[in-house]
Write a structure and sequence with these properties.
This protein is α/β, with parallel strands linked by helices and 240 residues long. Helix content is 32%, strand content 18%. It has a 6-stranded parallel β-sheet with strand order 3-2-1-7-8-9, with helices on both faces. A 3-stranded antiparallel β-sheet has the order 5-4-6. The chain is elongated. The two termini are 14 Å apart. Bound molecules: 2'-O-acetyl adenosine-5-diphosphoribose and zinc ion (ZN).
Length: 240
Amino acid sequence: DLAAKCADMIKKAQKICLLSGAGISTNAGIPDFRGPKGLYRTAGIDNPERIFDISYFHRDPSLFYKFHKEFLKALQQIKPTFAHYFFAKLEEKGKLIGIITQNIDSLHQRAGAKKVYEIHGGVWESYCLKCGKKFNYEESFKKTMEEEIPHCDSCGGVIKPDIVFFGEPVKYLDKCIELARESDLFFVVGSSLVVTPAALIPAECKGSIVIVNKGDFSTAYLPMDKVDLVADEDIDAFFK
Ligand code: OAD
Ligand code: ZN
């Protein structure tokens, strides 16, 4: 079966790389974006992608913060999933060269992985859009919980977490492409592969490519003839 075939591929591989998306954290209790219970379906607004659009944020940061408050609260409750531990263990065994994640929940790091590249940034640092002042997690968390829109205590500017919004450049892209080119086995786990440039990375792998994703994903940037195995299954069930 597919899981056995995948286990065999892992056994033979020496340089595994992972691209993870929101689907790897749904079992932890964080909804994804485009899945059946995804944020873009449940948000109840038109063009829900504007929640994370930088020009929209400049006009009205309150929409983002409405959702971000709930996300930060959820972050305090959740734990890494089996799959997060599975890939952390592959790194520990020296088989995994890097984890490229589109997620900002830091569950890979909390599972013990070290070579994690948060291509869409993270919540650990925030900064003032006006004067550039930086705020650590505790400071920005407190302000986010206390105010509708957190503001800088020096200049009154709006604070933005160091998350990559649509319209902003992603982080570590060169390193991510290098990892994919170097890998002999590349996993895409829980991503719809619709958001570029992240979705362009897997095709850079010259070895085998495995997709673990229940439901639809785009093949626009990763042609199916490049993919060696597709598991249309629940992520944790598959890796267990
Ligand atoms: P998506 O929500 O687009 O895709 C998640 C995929 O995982 C969907 O195809 C789901 O069906 C699948 N999935 C969910 N739970 C699963 C499970 N337990 N087992 C198997 N499959 C499961 O999330 P991403 O591809 O990560 O960016 O989205 C990419 C980017 O779009 C995000 O980083 C975010 C978003 O807008 C920004 O905000 C810049
Ligand atoms: Zn400021």
